[in-house]
Design goal:
This protein is mainly β. The chain has three domains: 43-161, OB fold (Dihydrolipoamide Acetyltransferase, E2P) (Beta Barrel); 167-271, OB fold (Dihydrolipoamide Acetyltransferase, E2P); 291-457, Sandwich (Jelly Rolls), CATH 2.60.120.200. The protein is built from four helices and 29 strands. Strands 1, 2, 3, 4, 5, 6, 7, 8 and 9 form a nine-stranded mixed β-sheet that branches. Strands 10, 11, 12, 13, 14, 15 and 16 form a seven-stranded mixed β-sheet that branches. A hairpin with a 2-residue loop joins strand 7 and strand 8 (142-144).
Length: 458
């Protein structure tokens, strides 16, 4: 009985105390401590430190006081980035970007899109991989991901999250200094042969799916690269055109410039009207003739300038240095073009045949051969004109529907493919056949060899 009374007494005391209003029992307010650290350098200055060192990898000393500021523009929430944190120097109108290799999955929960971070550079290393600057941890003379337990020692997560404003630009304006920034491109569409594919779910996609985008106002190509681990890899490519915002960077091997989406919310393709080319179509059905009207295999070309004596026109539309050049491989001579390492963006080069007269023939068929190496997008097209006279911009050109070689992305090839038979029966008089290369550095820079131009008829 005494035990029961004692228990009731304790309960009553608790109830009485709980009813007493006193400040001693208020829930304390949680205050987040302000970070008393400020940046004293920027991304561009950190890049300069490597450039000035003239070393392949530069490591900041343990007593270095450099603290770099950046805004997070990549997110791994949709699985399209993996252990790669990309920072730019401002939340709008960025002038520089940089990549950090971190050993942390689902980093979006801590370093979210737009989060301002401060990076303590002491003990970290930086390397330049073909224009893509990477910060990481030096292990055995190689930049590796910063181990997760050490991240808080180097990356200071501030309380500030900004709305990242993508920088509106054009493919012709993108240069190496734009790598690692968040950009917006307008008036884009996927190339015709990409429509109906998935972003990265095809049987031939390994690690990433690369899909070619075309900017309508200049027909320049670029690559949208999507991880085969992304949440939207199986979504179908749109047949519409529109706008996208993405990180401008380089692929894993730093061989090609690519766009990478954080997710599909920044992908806005809703316009029905596309900007596809219209091809010359000669309706008549013809059979192969036996008369050789024109043929060139370049075997007599000793140096590139010899083309002029043969009546060919080899011109860079923007008066740059890069043109089609003679190349000899295993005794075979071809004409080769590539934007890689040219520093020209855009690189628009034309290789135009001598005048070919079709008045004394019929049932004409054109063929030629191409091979693509270090392929990161098809950027070679064929055209015909009946009024070309030295100036390509003054002539009227019609595009020809031809097959262009598609090659590997990491090596040269030896095998050519045929353009297929192009019907020229509906043309008369003087004609000029042209190959137009439209790439860029940075940009799509596939290497092409062209050979064996031939027109036959009756």
């Amino acid at each position: 009985m005494k035990k029961t009374n004692r228990t009731l007494t304790i309960i009553l005391l608790v109830l009485i105390v709980s009813c007493v209003q006193t400040d001693d029992f208020e829930i304390p307010k949680v205050e987040i401590e302000e970070i008393n650290i400020t940046a004293n350098t920027n991304i561009q200055a950190i890049k300069y430190a490597l450039d000035q060192s003239e070393e392949d990898i530069y490591t900041f000393n343990a007593d270095d006081t450099s603290i770099m500021q950046g805004y997070v523009i990549s997110s791994d929430e949709a699985g399209n980035f993996y252990k790669t944190l990309i920072l730019q120097d401002n939340y709008e109108n960025p002038s520089a970007g940089i990549e950090m290799s971190i050993d942390l999955k689902s980093y979006f929960t801590k370093y979210n899109f737009g989060r301002k971070v401060l990076i303590k550079m002491a003990g970290l290393s930086i390397a330049n991989n073909e224009g893509k600057y990477i910060i990481g941890y030096l292990i055995k003379n190689k930049i590796e991901a910063i181990p997760e337990p050490l991240l808080n020692s180097y990356i200071i997560r501030t309380q500030e999250t900004e709305s990242i404003i993508p920088k509106k630009t054009s493919l012709t304006q993108l240069k190496n200094h734009s790598i690692g920034t968040y950009i917006q491109l307008e008036n884009l569409q996927f190339r015709n042969d990409e429509v109906g594919k998935t972003f990265a779910g095809e049987s031939f996609d390994e690690f990433n799916g690369d899909r070619i985008l075309i900017q309508c106002e200049n027909q320049i190509n670029t690559i949208l690269s999507t991880s085969t681990f992304s949440d939207f890899k199986s979504n179908l490519i749109s047949d519409k055109k529109g706008t996208l915002s993405a990180v401008f960077t380089k692929d894993y091997y730093a061989k090609k410039h690519v766009l990478v989406l954080n997710d599909l919310t920044s992908f806005d393709f809703i316009e029905d009207e596309r900007c596809d080319p219209s091809f010359l179509i000669c309706d008549s059905n013809i059979t192969n003739g036996s008369k050789l009207i024109f043929y060139e295999n370049f075997q007599e070309v000793k140096k590139t300038k010899d083309l002029e004596a043969l009546g060919w026109t080899n011109i860079n539309a923007y008066l740059g240095n890069e043109k089609f050049n003679k190349r000899t491989s295993q005794g075979n001579v071809s004409m080769q073009i590539s934007a890689y390492n040219s520093g020209e963006n855009p690189l628009e080069a034309w290789l135009i045949t001598p005048v070919i007269n079709l008045d004394n023939s019929s049932n004409e068929i054109l063929t030629f051969d191409t091979k693509a190496s270090y392929d990161n997008g098809t950027i070679l097209t064929a055209w015909v004109s009946t009024d070309f006279n030295k100036n390509i911009s003054d002539a009227t050109w019609q595009q020809l529907n031809v097959k262009i070689s598609v090659g590997p992305g990491n090596t040269y090839v030896n095998d050519y493919i045929s353009s297929g038979e192009i019907n020229l029966e509906c043309l008369d008089g003087d004609v000029f056949i042209a190959l137009k290369y439209l790439g860029g550095d940075p940009g799509v820079s596939t290497t092409y060899d062209v050979d064996n131009f031939k027109i036959i008829g009756d």
